[in-house]
User: Fold these one by one.
Assistant:
Number 1:
Amino acid sequence: MTEIINEIRNKLKENSDEKTLKSGQTFFKEKVKLYGVKTSVVSKIGREFLKAVSKDEEKIGIFKLCDELWRSGYVEESFIACNWSYYLCKNYEKKDWQVFKKWLESYVSNWASCDTLCNHTIGSFLEMYPEYLDELKKWAKSENRWMRRASAVSLIIPAKKGLFLKDIFEISDILLLDKDDLVQKGYGWMLKAASQAHDKQVFEYVMKNKKTMPRTALRYAIEKMPKALKEKAMEK
């Protein structure tokens, strides 16, 4: 197990460059750990090693490797961990929720790692086990900003499919006045995704709450709406 992780890290170091490292940091307000490897290259490295890992390891073994990757704190390693955990989505079990929650609580420290984990791994889990939507509403009340953002961005993919609209509005209600701009962007993004299948309902929600909804969240929520609706929503 340690050998595989070391090989991945050596490969990431080999493919790092100063330009990518510097430009990568500009996407984050907080300081993050980066090798400086382009995302497309990170994905390729992850796929290459997954072929070997999936032949030798059961799901629990792959999750242990993912945990080790998360533990490093490097954004690129978190991306590989997320891609590997999503690869196993057809085999998710209810007990895996605690694994994903641990990664989020213990290791996520930036929006990119948060969104990559939530959009696909956690989003897919929730489509399989929608009874865990109540857990997202608990996350929305967390003191941890990444848990609060996760409560929204975990529903991006399901929202685009028209799923869980009632829950989306309930989570938006909880996050409505959140002062953290990354949380505001997160639930605004969730509403934008939901508007693709439920534009009328999302527009009505925005109009009902626009006097108190932060402008950042509002702008995200209406981004995909027709121009006339956008203009109406932005009226003071």
Note: The longest helix spans residues 39-56.
Number 2:
Amino acid sequence: MYLTATDKIRIDRAAIKEARRYDGKWVLETNDDSISVEDAAKGYKGLMIIERCFRSLKRTQIRITPMFHWAPRRIETHVKIYVLSLFIERVAEVRSAGRRRLRS
């Protein structure tokens, strides 16, 4: 928190100074000792890209309502459907870009 509330609301300058130390840095934690730091960072960055694509698909391309799954099998199936739809969209994008270049 950057604010403290006692009798008045005040800015916690020590908390801001501490947070400033980490600006532009990532702190990752993993329980897999077999992977390197670089692989953990690449995996995390890849996950962010996939999540951004999912948000884009949900917002613009695929009109679906939120789904809430608790069974592992259903969660895995849901993710596979999204990955497949992302793959199909990307293939269509690449092929249509290739055709545009051939026509030019």
Note: Residues 22 and 88 are 38 Å apart (CA to CA).
